Amino acid sequence: MDSLPSNSILLKWRIQKEERCLRRELILFFDLLELYISVGYDLAFAWQETLVHCKSVRHLDFNQTVTENWEDHGLLHHLKRLEQTFPIERYRFGFTGLVQLYSRGGALTPFIQSFSRFLRQELERDLSGYLRDCPTRANVLMILFFLPPALALLLIPLIQAFQHFSGF
Amino acid sequence: MSFIHIVFGSLTLILAFFLIVFSPAVLRIFWAKNLLKHRTQPGMAQSVVKKERVGFWGWCGAFCLVQGLLWNSGFWSLALLLVWVLGTRISAQLALHRLQNAILREFLSFLYALPGLLEVGISFTQALEILRPQKEGTLQTLLDWGIHHFKRGAPLNATFVRLKAKIPEPLVSRSLQIFEMAQRKGIALQPLVRNSIESLEAEVQVREKLAQLRKSLLFQVALAFCTPWILGAATAWFQPELVEFWKSQKQSALVVWGAFLWEGMGLWILYHQTRFY
User: How large is the ipTM?
Assistant: First the structure.
């Protein structure tokens, strides 16, 4: 989503909302994944089981990337693809870490926990920023969309009456 | 009545027919009544439907519409219809959000007590029955329904899948299904419950902060929206001859509708801008 053209303000807002929804689903996904891994399941099995409960991930590529060609390539190939193509660039390091740890047999739980923590902290930062900026944005929008009609309804009749009665 | 008025009036009647039949208000009432079909406490059914408040909006809107059709031209009937449709949709959305927030809070208080029972060896289904919310609420209604079906021999998985379809709050329904899955696969429930508490608490805090922000903006937006019309009404009161002259001008209707649509667009953008998700 970082690479999409964002000239339009409305498109930017839309992209931000999609990112937030995707992040919310990612937090749930990695929480569940950590639970499966911590009880001893393999990452490949845990990934598939967790996807059952996270079907509503907004960005379809996430699910399609993981589930299509499943039998041909395996989880490692899908993780490598996500490392390159995941829509939010700043989250790709999560898949890089999983690829490295999974291929070398490293412990996955601490990494997944720290990635979940990172996502939660980003959610908090995003929310604080949103709560700080929203009133200002709303005030600008109100001035833009409610002041001109008030001026139009007051001034246009006066101007037309003035023009008519003064003979213009 | 002129030809235009007859056409507007007819179109209004046709639109009204389709909107009354397929209106979200009607659908919401059907959903609420269907949800409570297997209730053992009929009084609760009435209070949940009343909480929706959509029926009230629907009847008020229908009354206004009939009055508009009888006493005004089709043009004003269309305006009244628009107000009725928007009011019904907004009311249904607000009622759904209130219901979702209430269910989430009830579920959270239920979750806080769950780990304690699980630690002493009580199974999830027994804990569900022991801890179901004691005071009347929608979650109690829904869990009662689930427990009732489970006791009659329905498999737990199937019960929770059906419960998921009935619970209007997706976080709660998904959490219940995850707990059921964990119990079926033999995964420890305590860490799962702790994770769920953390996630749901974060979600409740986000919603509360956003609701506070929206409340503070709502009054300002309502005042800003009504200001042009209040000023117009004041002008008409103090300068009626000016308003009569202006009404006779060709562009007057265009300016009024243009102002209304511009403000409507502003409301739509503000509504989307003040949504975090």
Answer: 0.74
